Amino acid sequence: MYIVTVTFEVAPEHTEAFRPAILAQAANSLSREEGCHQFDVAFDADNPALCFLYEKYTDRAAFDLHLQSDHFKDLDATVASWVVRKEVATWIEATA
Predict the structure, then answer these.
(1) In whole angstroms, what is the distance from residue 52 CA to residue 56 CA?
(2) How many Cβ atoms sit within 10 Å of the Cβ of residue 47?
(3) Max alpha carbon distance in the chain (Å)?
(4) CA 40 to CA 25: how far, in whole Å?
(5) Sheet of strand 50-57, all strands in order from the earlier edge strand to the far edge
């Protein structure tokens, strides 16, 4: 499996709008993308401006399809000006 982690720092004035937008993105990814197997959203307990995503895809090709989806492009355009910092890392799931 191909794992993607994303950490967002959202401008304080946009944290309330960001939450439903990113939760809708997670739901859309899971329901509309065959290759998306997991899309978890978490917020820092002490700082609501920090958001962490854990996404699991069949492979890199499935993630690339995610990046090309209309729902991803719409979210990206919506939140671009809200995000102060975004860190993305990719991982390959270890198997025994």
Answers:
(1) 14
(2) 12
(3) 45
(4) 10
(5) 36-43, 50-57, 2-10, 83-92
Residue 46: count other Cβ atoms within 10 Å of its Cβ. Answer: 6
Q: Would the pTM of this model clear 0.85, i.e. be above it?
A: yes
Phi, psi of 4 (to 5 degrees): -125, 130
Distance CA 85, CA 80 (A): 10
Helix (H, G, I), strand (E, B) or coil at 51: strand
Q: Mind listing the pLDDT tens digit for each residue in 20-78?
A: 999 999 999 999 999 999 999 999 999 999 999 999 999 999 999 999 999 999 999 99
For residue 4, what are the contacts with CB-CB under 8 A and spacing of at least 6? Answer: 53, 54, 55, 56, 57, 63, 88, 89, 90, 91
H or E element that contains 55: strand 50-57
